[in-house]
Amino acid sequence: MEYVEARRERVEERLAEVVARVDPVELSDQLADAVLAGGKRVRPTLTLLVCEAMGGDPEDALDFGVGIELVHNASLVVDDIIDRSELRRGEPSAWAAAGYGPALVASDGLLGEAFALFDDPRAMSAVADAMVELGEGEAMELVDRPETEDEYMTLARRKTGALFRAAAELGAIAAGADETAVETVGEYAEHVGVAFQIRDDVLDATGDTAALGKPAGQDEVMERPSVVRVTDRPVAEVNDLADAESRQARAALESLDLVDGDARTYLEELAAFVVERER
After folding, report:
1. Burial of 44 (0-12, 13-18, 19+ CB in 10 A)
2. C-beta of residue 19 within 8 angstroms of C-beta of residue 61
3. What total number of domains does the chain contain?
4. How do residues 132-152 score in pLDDT, each as one tens digit?
5. pLDDT by residue (tens digit) across 176-234?
6. Measured at the alpha carbon of residue 246, what is the angle toward residues 228 and 35, in degrees to the nearest 5?
7. How confident is the model at residue 6 (pLDDT cuts 50, 70, 90)?
8. Which of 51, 127, 224, 262 could serve as 171's disulfide partner, Cβ 3.0–4.6 Å?
9. Are 45 and 167 in contact (CB under 8 A)?
10. CATH number for the domain including 236?
C-alpha cells in the first residue's frame, strides 16, 4: 500500500537524521548499524497512523514513532546478546559484528536518543511503563520461565505487547486524544503485539533461517519458553490463539471513534497481518 509505505519512508528519513546527529561519529556509526539495516518499522508506522486515525497530523507523531523504534532496536541488541544470535535481519547482529561491549554501548545510545524525543509528560510516562514491562518480561523469560499457557501470555504481553501498546498510545497522545481513547487504542495494540509474538514463535519453530533473516529454531536451542514449547499444542491450535488476540484487537478498534480513511483501514489490516506474516 503506497499510503503506508510513504509513512514508513518518512520514519526511515527521520531515523537517519536522528542517528546522523549523534556524537562522536563512532557511536553514530554503531547506532546506524543497529537501526538502519532494515526492519518492518511496524511500531513507528503504527504511531503515525493511530495519530492520523484519531484526527491528528502524523508529522506531530513522527518523533514519538522514531523514539519507540529506537527503544525497540535497543531491546533487540540485548536480545541478540542473551540469545547469542549472530544474525539480525539477515546481517550480523550488533554483538557479532562489533563485540559485546560496543553492542551494549550502542543499545544505551539508542535509548538515550529515544528519550530525547519524548518531549511530553504523557509520552514519557507511556514509554517508561512499557520499558518496565519489557524488563519484567526479559527477567521472566530468563529466570521465572513460564510453564503454563497463562504464564506464557503474561510473558508475551510484557515482552512484545508492551511496546506495541506504547507505540499506539504515543500516536493517540500526539493527536491530543483523551485518556479513555489512549487506553483503548493501547488495548488494541497490545493484542496485536501478543498475536505478533505468538506468530513469531510459530515461525521460529516452522520456518527457516533464509526466509526469516535470523536463525530459526532458536527457541528450541536456547530452551526458550515459546508458546509452542510451553503449551505443547499443535501449530494449528497455536495459530488459533493468535487469531483470538487478533479478534480482540479488532473489537477494541471498533469501539473507538476514528476518522474513516486509509489510516483506519491499515489499523484494521494490521490485526490480520500479524497472524498471517511469513517472516
Report:
1. buried
2. no
3. 1
4. 999 999 888 888 788 899 999
5. 999 999 999 999 999 999 999 999 888 888 866 666 666 666 666 666 778 888 888 88
6. 75
7. very high
8. 51
9. no
10. 1.10.600.10
Question: In this structure, which amino acid lies at residue 89?
Answer: R
State which amino acid sits at residue 160: T
Task: Give the domain range for residue 181.
Answer: 2-276
Sign of the alpha-carbon dihedral angle for 32, 35, 37, 43:
negative
Q: CA angle 239-35-207, nearest 5°? A: 30
Distance in angstroms (rounded) separating the CA atoms of residues 31 and 14: 14
Helix, strand, coil fractions of the chain, as percent rounded to 5 = 75, 0, 20
Measured between alpha carbons, how far is 77 from 138 in angstroms, rounded to an integer? 13
Characterize the bridge pairing of strands 87-88 and 91-92.
antiparallel
8 Å CB contact between 197 and 164: no
Report the alpha-carbon angle 97-88-160, nearest 5.
130
- Tell me how far the alpha carbon of residue 229 is from its chain's centroid: 22
> pTM of this prediction?
0.91
Helix (H, G, I), strand (E, B) or coil at 64: helix
